Amino acid sequence: xxxxxxxxxxxxxxxxxxxxxxxxxxxxxxxxxxxxxxxxxxxxxxxxxxxxxxxxxxxxxxxxxxxxxxxxxxxxxxxxxxxxxxxxxxxxxxxxxxxxxxxxxxxxxxxxxxxxxxxxxxxxxxxxxxxxxxxxxxxxxxxxxxxxxxxxxxxxxxxxxxxxxxxxxxxxxxxxxxxxxxxxxxxxxxxxxxxxxxxxxxxxxxxxxxxxxxxxxxxxxxxxxxxxxxxxxxxxxxxxxxxxxxxxxxxxxxx
Length: 255
Ligand SMILES: Nc1ncnc2c1ncn2[C@@H]1O[C@H](COP(=O)(O)OP(=O)(O)OP(=O)(O)O)[C@@H](O)[C@H]1O
Prior knowledge:
255 residues; alpha/beta; Rossmann fold; 6-stranded mixed sheet; 4-stranded antiparallel sheet; binds adenosine-5'-triphosphate
């Protein structure tokens, strides 16, 4: 196991009326590709916001690279692509290059100059998501999946160690979901980027991930993805809140 990059200790979170998270303990290590899965309203987005320091837990502690989240200053080490990235105003006349370059703003500040090698950095980021041929296109002229790749390139331009994605395949048509997850797998394996994502595509994502966390207010399972198959029906029911039936897609295809 790689060194721990994100540690959550006894995290709980309460919105005014709703208990969203209860006593979450989770360690994400260098090199992990973790999918957080769970039914609607199970606290997935809340958990990501707590990791990113956008919400302060009601109780518990978050450590990023060994430091408490409020003392962690190297924000560029964690890239984030929110669920709403591709609801960006696509009528806005920005090229793919401009969108990716804007990922450096948090590093340079609004009124600072971009570094001299910015064009090379943009090219590398676009290449790593398979979009280098689209650099001069208008972002509004791309498909949902292509736009999402550009937003990932924007997150990658500051060379993060960790990439956090909230439902990145919303807006990606089903035939492109597989190649989208292959691209994330490539970033994880070849560029050594630790990936944490929230998704509902349990089946499509399962070929790419190393770990899975099943969340429904509490963590009902966290471990290697092949161990998830050993969850008992009782554990599955407790997780989902109602009876669930396991479907083996492999045997469905064979029979
Ligand atoms: N800003 C908020 N104010 C009050 N309650 C909220 C707020 N955001 C989320 N909640 C509630 O907290 C719970 C967890 O919500 P969260 O968005 O984290 O779930 P989720 O698993 O990401 O859901 P989905 O899969 O539907 O996106 C839900 O019951 C939700 O209604």
